[in-house]
Design goal:
By secondary structure, the chain is an alpha+beta fold. Helices cover 21% and strands 34% of the residues. It contains three helices and eight strands; from the N terminus they run βαββαββββαβ.
């Protein structure tokens, strides 16, 4: 049983070995899907935890107790192409490079594979071309 999570570490916790001690303590496996640091120097990890569901729940409670923000990744972001005006406002906002300008077509492109559904581009888009599917 696996769960995909987005973890947000405050800057005070960024260099602590929280994940390795977590998997030892709760006997879980993990696979890091993305890792990036925000401009505010908070650490973000997207990872999949695999193991006993009860232990995953305990691990999530443990993380929250340490001050880590935990969000289940059960959402998907989609681009509605007809609404996009290729204004590029979303591109610099995306922390994982899931939005970019295609130099041949001059169209803004979106990769659902790279996207971690953080939702930042939804706020940046003036035409509501980026939408969340739950
Ligand atoms: S939700 Fe938007 S900003 Fe966040 S990763 Fe996906 S494309 Fe990038
Ligand atoms: S901000 Fe919206 S309209 Fe502008 S390029 Fe991005 S998706 Fe398209």
């Amino acid at each position: 049983m696996g769960k995909k999570l987005v973890l947000n570490f405050p800057s005070s916790l960024v260099d602590k070995p929280i994940i390795s001690s977590l998997v030892r303590e709760f006997n879980l496996d993990f696979n890091i899907l993305k890792a990036y640091v925000t401009p505010e120097e908070e650490g973000n990890l997207v990872l999949e935890l695999t193991g006993d569901e009860g232990k995953i729940g305990s691990a999530i409670r443990h993380l929250k107790g340490l001050g880590v923000k935990v969000e289940l990744l059960s959402k998907e972001v989609e681009m509605i192409r007809e609404r996009c005006t290729d204004c590029t406002a979303c591109i610099p906002q995306c922390p994982v490079g899931a939005l970019w300008m295609d130099k041949d077509s001059f169209q803004v492109k979106f990769s659902s594979e790279k996207c971690i559904a953080c939702g930042i581009c939804l706020k940046a888009c003036p035409t509501r071309a980026m939408v969340l599917r739950i």
